[in-house]
């Protein structure tokens, strides 16, 4: 799973679901999502649901904090790391 | 004189030092540990000059350190002013100035920013105490009407109001809750609400009053349905208290009803907004736990309650808010000033021990508190909630003054005029802003929203910002809010149609390629 692909998928979801399509293209990968109120606790949950169903990655609750959810780049890095960790565990059990 | 609010943990540490007091994730404190941490924090604050009668701002995500800090502040005879971890810095600075804070305490990560913004007016302190600090007992006695904490709420006039709660005010509510819910040392209470929200007073202090434990849910998980259900089971929660929205989410998206109700669960309380009856029916069919609807604005904490009965479940409306509790007296005033009788509607008034001392910086509250809530008298002393009489709204239990949101968004230099309405209800309720830009300027919706985020708590931010040339007015010149709600619905429908059309085109394209 590549960082750039995850960023793209997250951008698309956030634009469509939380920013009404973002017609003015205001969102960037470094837009502070929590600070600007683009995501809150309810939307974090929706975003996590999308990551689980759309990307097949389960983000552990211990990783859900304001540092990891700062912007699209940090969330994508978290998703990539969680996917990598899941893969490593799967290999160990194989 | 009744004992102070902080006496609860001090007594708890004497009577059952090794029982669990508070847990947040893997961090836990026994009563002994909480007591020592509170003393250490009190000493550190005292070294900064904080003492009886002062206010101390606590700005942080939920943690066991934060709970210890609250107790430390009280032990000095000072009052704490909690600020949510998601609150913007500008709001913290503004409210610290408003209440004349003697110190601002925050977690390590935020400390440099807070120092830079505030150090000239108040000292700043890291919430995480040094473990070698003095832990000798600190226990300032307080008078009944002495301030214990200030909870800032959104005001309908545009500026936040600090609701001042005294030691006896808080104790009157806690004592009632402990008695009514029969809280005991074996109980494990969930803390779902943010600590700025008065629901948390029950979770924390009903536990501390009885040697029970309180289990903090971080804000990030407060609306994560699967995690909430897991928390309920894994933490073996016996007393749950939250806004109905959280329970609705757990039922709808968290699979709450798919598993048998946890054996430990014996009380479910909800408050802050009407609970759609379908959700109450679902809960009643799932668990034998007592279900209680608690009612009361921050200014009075819980002043009426109603325990759900089978008869309530056949009504097609939310359960009643019930009758008076916490030693309070409540009655309903008709528009002509007389007391309403059965079948009539009017504004609910409250007098009694849980009524606030007053708003910070305003004259003390005298006489009954008018709630601004319109209720219907069902029978002698039993009430149904009807709605609000002013421009305050409830979104997921948070009271929001639309005027405050409009003021914040309107302070953007490119905004000429703005009106905010609520679209939808219950869990689907959303704040929607209509913005008229200054001539020749084109602020983007996100620019307007991020401007608001610098001043407002996150729950008061609009979900959607529409930019348009003008606001519809009624014949008397007021903004036509009903027309704005209709306009929003139209725009939502139009967008849904466009998305549907786009999806059709995309799938037609894929089929084309597949052939």
Describe this protein's structure.
The complex is a heterodimer of chains A (94) and B (515). With 94 residues, chain A is mainly alpha-helical. Chain A is 56% helix and 0% strand. In chain B, 33% of the residues lie in helices and 25% in strands. A five-stranded mixed β-sheet of chain B has the order 11-12-13-14-15, sandwiched between helices. A four-stranded mixed β-sheet of chain B has the order 2-1-10-9. Chain B is α/β, with parallel strands linked by helices. Chains A and B meet through helix 2 of A and helix 8 and helix 13 of B.
Q: What assembly state would you assign to the polypeptide chains in this entry?
A: heterodimer
Helix content of chain A: 55-70%
Low-confidence stretches of chain A: none
Question: How many helices of chain B does DSSP assign?
Answer: 14
Kindly provide the radius of gyration of chain B, computed on alpha-carbon positions and rounded to a whole number of angstroms: 24 Å
Approximate helicity band of chain B: 25-40%
Proportion of residues in extended strands of chain A: under 5%
Distance between the termini of chain B: 85 Å
Sheet with most strands of chain B = 5 strands, mixed
Q: What's the rounded overall pLDDT mean of chain A?
A: 89
What is the number of helical segments of chain A per DSSP (H or I, 4+ residues)?
Answer: 3
Low-confidence stretches of chain B: none
Tell me the major beta sheet of chain A: none
Number of distinct beta strands of chain B: 25
- SS content category of chain B: alpha/beta
Radius of gyration of chain A, CA atoms, in whole angstroms: 13 Å
